[in-house]
Fold this protein.
Amino acid sequence: RSFCYFPLLHFNVIIYRLSMLTTVVRGLPRLPCSGRFLCSAPAAALGSRENPFDVIIAGGGMVGTALACDIGGREELASRSVLLLESSGHLPQMPSGKSKIPNISNRVSALTPGSVSFLNDLGVWSSIEKVRAQPFSRMHVWEQVCRSTITFDAGSVDPLSIPGYHLHSSPIMGVVTENWLVHAALNQALMERNSPNVTLKTGARVKAASLPHDGVSASGIEDGSACPWSTVTLDDGSVLHCRLLVGADGPNSLIRKSAGIDTVSHQYKQSAVVATLQWEKNDQAAAYQRFLPTGPIALLPLTDSMASLVWTTTPEHAVELCEMDAEKFLHSINSAFELKFSQNPAIEKVNDAIGCILESIRSSYDTPSVEASCPRVIGLDEGSRGSFPLFLCHAKDYVDKRVALVGDAAHRVHPLAGQGVNLGYGDARELTSAIVQAVKEGQDVGSLRHLEDYESKRLWHVLPVMGAIHGLKHLYGASSMPVELLRSVGLQFTDATLPIKAEIMAHVMK
C-alpha cells in the first residue's frame, strides 16, 4: 500500500499544478499562430517601416528597368528586395510568334559599344538584335561655312579598347535601335528571370517622397515622425519604405525635388525635329552630321534604306518643318546637307595654307582626307514627324542620405552627340557595382560612403561629356570670323591627328 501511495500522491500534485498553469495561461493574450512555429508573430509586410524594401526604383523607363535587371541578376544581391515602380499601366512587349513587328519608331538611340556590352551582360542584346538594330562604323561631320570635315572610323581604334568588341564581326562606333524595343527586351528579361527579389509594379505613380528624418521640428521639438528610411507615397495612398530610393524618373524628377537636390539648367531655345525617312542605299553603314548656324542636322542609319532624322533648329523653324508637306520637308533636308553656303575668303586662305601642313600629318598616320557625301533622302514615313524642346539640366548632387539619381534625373544633355541614354546605362551599371561593394563589406545598401563612390565615378565621366557637348553647341552657334577660323582649324587638325581622334572616340564609345 505504501508503495502505491507515494506515486499516487505525486500524480495528484502534478495534476493540481498543471490545472493551475492552465488557468494562468488562459488568462494570457493569445498569439496568432502561423507556419510550423506554433506561436510566432507574422512577419511585417514588405515595404513597411519594420520591413523596408532594400531598393525602390522610381521610374520604369529604359534606365530604371536596366538597373532593376542588373541588381536582380547579381548573385551577391539575390537576397535583397527590389521594387520597380512604373507609372504607365501598359509596357512595350517584344514581338512573339507571328505577331507583326511594329513600323520603325521615330524615337531611337545611338547606343555606344559600352551600352551594347551592358545590355548583353543583362541578357537582352541578342533578342534586340534579332528584331531590329543597325550598327554603324563611321560618322562624317562637317560644317556649312567652310570645307572643314572630320570622319570618325571605328577601324582606327584598337579593338581591345572597345567594350564588347567580340560581339561584332567588325569594329563599330555604335548601334541605332528603337527605344521601345530596348525597353520591351528589358521588361521581358525581368519577367522571364522571375527573380524572387525583384517586383515590378505598373500603374504606380509616386505622389510624394521623403528622405530619412529625425522627427525634430524646426523649433527643436520632437513630433514623433522620426523615420530612418526613405519613403514614397503612391497615388493610391500606399506608403512604402526602403533603404535606398533611386530616382530614375526623368528630367523633372520628383525624387530629386523631394530630396532637395538643386540643379544647374540652361534653356537652349532650340527644338529637335525627328522623323523616319527613306534614303538612297547607304552601303557604308555610316552616320552623317552637318553643323548649321541654327544647329546640327544628323541622319542615323536604321537600315541600308531607312534613316532617322534629328534636326536641331529654332522653335519657329521646327514648327515650320513639322507643318510643311512631305515633298518640301524632304527638299529642306537634302538642301541642308548639300547646299554650298558663302564662305569667308580670309578663312579659306588660312584653310588652304594649313591644309598643306596637315596633309603631311595625315600621311604620317596614314589617314587620308575623306570627302563627306550624305545619301539623299527620298521618302518620309507618314506620322513620324515630331519635335521637342532642348535644354540642359544637371543635378548638383547625384546622391544623398538613402537616395541616388540615375539617367535624366541626374543629367539631361543636348542630343548632338547622342549620349543621353548611354550616360544613363553607365549610371545603372556603376550604381549596381556600388551596392554590390557595400554588401560585400557588410554595409547597408544605402551606405552613403558607397553612394558617394558612385557619384564620384559618374561625375568623372559625365562632366567632360556634358562640357564638350555644351561647348560644341556654342562653338558652332557662333558666327564671328575668329571663332569660325578657330573651329575650322581645330576640326581639320583633329581629323588629321589620329591619336587625338582615337582618344575622343575611345571616351565616347564606353
